[in-house]
Amino acid sequence: MDESTAKPKVAVHKFSSCDGCQLAFLDMGEDLLTLSAMVDIVHFAEAGMLDENTPVDVAFVEGSLNTRHDLERIQAIRKNSRFLVTIGACATAGGLQALRNFTDADAWHSAVYATPEYLDSLTTASPIRSAVHVDLELWGCPVNTRQVTAAVRALLSGVTPAAEQDKVCMECKRRQAVCVMVAHGTPCMGPVTRTGCGALCPSFERGCYACYGPAENPNTDALSHWFEGLGLLPEQLREQYHGITSQAEPFTAAGNRYRK
User: pTM (2 decimals)?
Assistant: First the structure.
């Protein structure tokens, strides 16, 4: 095929994660056929395509970095990619795996494994940007099909995808959802979290878990003061920030203020 008519190549890579963000591709349905007409998906293990080392135009990466082998792989992926896009909380902010960063990981290894010296484990679990340059971060746990499709179209058109800037609280108002903090005294990360989920948890009277990461100019001091008014103890306050997106700097810093 002539290079001028060849379709852009796309790869989807997995590191330490639950595979949930990769389902944003598989859940496209008919839109996946449209995407396949636009690009050539050359590597996507969950869908059956295996060609990890082929140079691509866009590489999507799910999962956090946890081993020395992970570091070697991500360097190779970055070298072979025109654009590198992280998808989901694990790749952008460490995910649940990064909760071990706040404990003695070696002690856990010794308690769980008979021969922990055989483990290839880094001291911390880290987001992809800690090791390589990332061109675009798609937040969410998991990301959604709309985000992925918009990112592909924008990058291949030479423009920067528009980022969500509204907070979850704004989405609650649009959905006419009752504020769970005001009505029920339920701790909620909505005031400092960017929207993208459609305020899913508050719509079912659950507090936001900050799946989509910190919003623009998050006022964590004010939110922490509100949490204190709800009766949360320092340990509970720390847990609010050190969750799925614990390695996002505003949340890391806010949670660390309540560490012993």
Answer: 0.90
